[in-house]
Amino acid sequence: MVSPASSSMSSDSTLDPIKTWHTFAADKVLKVLDTDSETGLTPQQVTQRQEQYGLNELKESAGRSPLEILWDQFTNIMLVMLIAVAIVSAFIDFRKGSFPKDAVAIFAIVILNGMLGYFQESRAEQALAALKRMSSPRVRVVRDGKMLELAAKELVPGDIMFLEAGVQIPADGRLIEAQNLQVREAALTGEAEGVIKKPNVELPEDATLGDRLNMVFMGTEVVQGRGQVIVTNTGMTTELGRIAEMIQGVETEPTPLQQRMTQLGNVLVSGSLALVALVVIGGVIRTGNFSSLEDLLEVSLSMAVAVVPEGLPAVVTVTLAIGTQRMVRRHALIRKLPAVETLGSVTTICSDKTGTLTQNKMVVQSVYTLNEVFQVTGEGYDPVGELRLITSDENSTLSPASEVLQPILNACVLCNDAQLQQDKNQWIILGDPTEGALLSLAGKVGLFRETQNQQNPRVAEIPFSSERKRMSVICESDAEFAMFTKGSPELILAECDSVLVGDKIISLTEADRQRILDQNNEMAGKGLRVLGFSSRSLTRLPEEGNEETAEQELVWLGLVGMLDAPRPEVREAVKRCREAGIRPVMITGDHQLTAKVIAQDLGIATSDALSLTGQELQKLSQTELEQQVEQVSVYARVSPEHKLRIVQALQKNGEFVAMTGDGVNDAPALKQADIGIAMGITGTDVSKEASDMILLDDNFATIVAATEEGRVVYSNIRRFVKYILGSNIGEVLVIASSPLLGGGVPLTPLQILWMNLVTDGLPALALAMEPAEPAVMQRPPYNPRESIFARGLGLYMIRIGIVFSILTIILMIWAYNHAQSDGNPERWKTMVFTTLCLAQMGHAIAVRSDTQLTIQMNPATNLYLWAAVGLTTILQLLLIYVPPLQSFFGTHFLNFTELSICLGFSALMFIWIEMEKLVYKWFSRRRQNSGL
To answer: Which residues are catalytic?
Structure first.
């Protein structure tokens, strides 16, 4: 950055972007940029600056190519092991001269899982592309004394451009002139209300983006008026460009689920390789030679296939997709599948105020006359509600509110350019939200604009200006004229010499003035936007050009205070957050006072809670911010980098952060947050593309509902992980022990794939449909960095795997001896295969709950599980009794006795788990009774 003193006026080679243009007078900016407001830049200057600065467009850094994303899928350690197993299996089959069906099946699973991962990750990052769409294609400029229209990308610093209503501003610039210029800067600041621009002000260096009234910025839109601007920054040096840089600078971390799945793969593969080595070495030592190496290798291959849960990636993906559908029904759209589970780990929700915590509708809260205070009820723009008298003094009348407030409500309706309309049972506003709130207020006592305008047609008006801070209208009234004025209370009060009390006009005393100012300060202290109202009777219309002289000797009518009211359902949602151990934080571009009032009203912050403004935050180092961030619940007047810093500080403290936003300014923070949540109604394309989730109703309560679904999804993932891996550990131990019998491996890789994909997969999918536990939102979130094996899951899998293997090994010994004496030495393998598959059905039924017995649970809460168990059992029987399937899967016919024995041993698995629950309950009751 170059300071103004070092900027050259004669040589373009020393021109550099300056970020403090708002501190300069317009003529100083012209001088620094060596340009002229009348003639603009010369062709030579344009050429030099285009070479120096390049095109006025946002530049994109290269991301991963589709081929790189695809390749990354096959570097997963479990898939690598399966590929190795498939190669060795194919080699052994070719040596035997048989078709390598095991290898083909394994390769098919590898490719399927790889493609599944690719489609999840291959969504190209579109946030920067959405930013690029925000630049205006054409712009009017003056160059070399001639007015030109050219492509926005050709702009350079020093160009003089012209703005008018409807134009999307194509670069950052310092205003030279403005005529009633109003710019909507919601894309950058998050605030929807248009900003009135003032070219003739010089601002302090630390003025926030929303307060830089003498500047305009790329990507914002001119609402009304026109202006002349010196282009100060283009391309990546604009405010929009800085946001683009921040988006590209944010590194995406793996989600907790992705980290847990990686950890799971590492543990399984390393454990499998260790067991394979143990079996091979033990087998060689036992036989004393290498002649049995090929048999041992087949055992090892079966073990390797058994330990890898081939169906788990598909089950996880389907579970996340089911969670996505549930969330859509609750008005939350998930863009990235892993975000479904990630939501359940959230510890802090950073929410924007406008439209998310509030209705994004200005609603009148109270009306003050000199002697009375009225509270206003009702929601949104609906003209249904009441004006309740709260306080009055002895001089006030006890007339109905409609009579007492008739004069001020007339002013609300007549001094107004908005329209209140009903559309499909919903009241909407056409025009300014503030004026819409006034129409809704008057409608509560039956005063509507159409009727009032017919009775008192407008004949003249004095429009609002930023200098006067008020507007007036003159209407016909009986044989005379009536003028109504609204605007800044202090400035209107200064023009009043009398006040309306009841139906009498009396002189305005100094005590009355002070009383009104105190009322105004009290309302502002509550975070309300306050308007003052006055009127005056005229015998004739003011002369043209002298309208403002009529705004004198006014009669004071009263004050109206309004607020972007909180959504009624948000208070309960905030309460649920607190109960669930989640801390809500408000981050807004609005004023600090207003933000604190809303936060206190909703329960986000207490009256003595810390709050920070963007200016205060700017002075803190990142370390200082990290120390304060846990105590601050409200951030006001923040800029894009502030939001990013807040999220980073929270994450540094170990918080798992969800961040909401709707503007371009929110995109970097949305991308940085563990869960970025964009607004579906008011959100920009940029914020949506940078997010993980989109709120279809822009409602904070929806975030809490989605968090509940996230917790349910994580619980169900843990449920079927312990189901699948408990079974797999049992399979591995059974296969590892088989060489001791001397009868070969009881399970082929193809049979193991069948178990892992079908007999494990279908019930696991059904377990994903388990409903929420009753107290799922009455506990703190689990540590997002906890291991997949945490809270006893690892011990459960090992314990159940051992029980699984002991039962099956006992059956295997009996079946082996029975098969030898029965003359069919291979039938024992089918009995082992069948017992393992059917035992998993009992395991699936029992694993629904850690504490409740199956008989205590309502079977109708998950009919999918019973259907999956029934279907899987039938499919397993088909493998035994349908000849073509017998041949393909290498099974043998079992008689009734053998099948009954398999069913009996399988049922023991279910009985064991139910007995564990009884023992757990017994110990829990003993601990409670002993007071431990």
So the answer is: 352
**For residues 435 and 194, what is the distance between their CA atoms, to the nearest angstrom?**
14
d(CA 653, CA 622): 12
Q: Is 635 exposed, middle or buried (0-12, 13-18, 19+ CB in 10 A)?
A: buried
pLDDT of 496 strictly over 90: yes
Q: Is the dihedral of CA 568, 573, 576, 577 positive or negative?
A: negative
At 429, list the tokens: 């506003």
- 437 in Cβ contact with 529 (< 8 Å): no
CATH class of 333-357+568-706: alpha beta
Q: Mean pLDDT throughout 421-449? A: 86
Which of 620, 626, 621 shows the shortest CA–CA distance to 652? 626
Residues in the chain: 932
CATH 3.40.50.1000 location in the chain: 333-357+568-706
Over range 465-471, report the average pLDDT: 77
Is residue 728 very low, low, confident or very high in pLDDT (cuts 50, 70, 90)?
confident
For 26-249, the fitting CATH number among 1.10.565.10, 3.40.50.300, 2.60.200.40, 2.70.150.10 is 2.70.150.10
In 205-328, which ranges are E strands?
A: 215-216, 221-233
Q: Which of 27-36, 266-275, 826-835 has the lowest mean pLDDT?
A: 266-275
Q: Give the number of other CB atoms < 10 A from CB of residue 813.
A: 14
* Residue 204 CB neighbours (<10 A): 10
- DSSP secondary structure string, 700-765? HHHHHHHHHHHHHHHHHHHHHHHHHHHHHHHHHHHHHHGGGTTS--SS-HHHHHHIIIIITHHHHH
Please determine, for residue 785, whether its predicted confidence score (pLDDT) is greater than 90.
no
Instruction: Please state which CATH number belongs to domain 358-566.
Output: 3.40.1110.10
DSSP string for 632-676: EEEEES--HHHHHHHHHHHHHTT--EEEEE-SGGGHHHHHHSSEE
What pLDDT does 867 receive?
95
- Which pLDDT score is estimated for 692? 86
In this prediction, residue 190 carries a pLDDT of: 64
Q: Which helix (H) or strand (E) segment is 611 a member of?
A: strand 610-613
Buried b (16+ CB within 10 A) or exposed e, 345-380: bbbbbbbbbbbbbbbbbbbbbbbbbbbbbbebebeb
Beta-sheet strands, E only, within 304-434: 332-334, 348-351, 358-368, 372-376, 387-392, 419-423, 426-430
Confidence of residue 645 (pLDDT cuts 50, 70, 90): very high
Q: How many CB atoms lie within 10 A of CB 301?
A: 25
Residue 435: closest CA among 193, 255, 240, 247: 193
Locate CATH 3.40.1110.10 in the chain.
358-566
The pTM (predicted TM-score) of the whole model is 0.72
Domain with CATH 2.70.150.10 in the chain: 26-249
DSSP string over 127-166 = HHHHHHTTS-SEEEEEETTEEEEEEGGG--TT-EEEEETT
